[in-house]
Write a structure and sequence with these properties.
It is a single chain. This protein is an alpha/beta fold. It has a single domain, classed as TIM Barrel (Alpha-Beta Barrel), CATH 3.20.20.70. The protein is built from 11 helices and 8 strands. Strand 4, helix 6 and strand 5 form a beta-alpha-beta unit. It is globular and about 40 Å long. The model has no long low-confidence stretch (mean pLDDT 95).
């Protein structure tokens, strides 16, 4: 966990696992990965294929931790975790949608497997799924975070509730570190930074941003700016 969360207890993770469902996309490449690591990213999250390519180019990840994004529907979850270990991953992540019993059960299986092998487990939990914003209430977010922690997640990734007060209740109820995702590309960098600052003030342990970093016109510059906020 100390490879992920720095001495101040915070994490700036760049999520670059989107090519698995978006296909070829500008910014999802090893050059961008190397640039965000050089600008201060603590960790990079990606899929097996990109992680394998990055492992052959030591100048890409350098000091940054590697988080491998795994498939909640995988037929052999233990082999997924062992493959991550063989690549030298510091942690694995699984996304599960509450309300889907199969995904919720799979999340618990992954938690048990990761505990067996000593792998820090990140549970990304979304109430109802990304396409159900009406279900993304602070109470629902707090509930899924605590449920994931009770299953054995070492840290959770979830939505920002929208205000510090309700986010503080999520953090306090989770019992494990909570990091927030970035979602769709923000139109304004200042608004993005303010949101991060608010979330950190509420006790959030860090951020896991994707499009708002690799989709930015200058990924290194926005990474450096966010690193200043996260590790201020």
């Amino acid at each position: 966990m100390r490879r992920l969360f720095q001495a101040d207890g915070r994490l700036l993770l760049v999520a670059m696992d989107h090519a698995g469902f978006m296909g070829p996309t500008h910014g999802l490449d090893l050059q961008t990965m190397a640039s965000v690591v050089g600008a201060g990213a603590d960790a990079v999250m990606t899929t097996f294929g990109t992680a394998r390519r990055a492992s052959l180019a030591p100048e890409v990840l350098r000091r940054a931790a590697l988080v491998l994004s795994l498939d909640v529907h995988a037929s052999e979850p233990e082999e997924q975790v062992l493959s991550a270990l063989r690549l030298g991953a510091d942690s694995v992540k699984v996304l599960a949608v509450s309300g889907d019993g199969a995904q919720w059960s799979a999340l618990e299986r992954y938690a048990l497997i990761c505990d067996r092998w000593g792998v820090p487990f990140q549970a990304e939990v979304i109430p109802g799924g990304f396409d159900k914003p009406d279900l993304h209430t602070p109470q629902s977010i707090a509930t899924v975070c605590r449920q994931a922690a009770e299953m054995g997640a070492d840290y959770v990734k979830t939505l920002y509730t929208g205000d510090p007060e309700s986010m503080r209740r999520v953090v306090e109820g989770a019992t494990v570190p909570v990091i927030i995702l970035g979602g769709a590309r923000a139109a304004d960098d200042d608004c993005l930074v303010r949101q991060v600052d608010e979330a950190l003030a509420a006790g959030v342990a860090g951020i896991a941003f994707g499009r708002n970093i690799w989709g930015h016109p200058d990924p290194a510059a926005i990474t450096a700016r966010l690193a200043e906020v996260v590790h201020a």
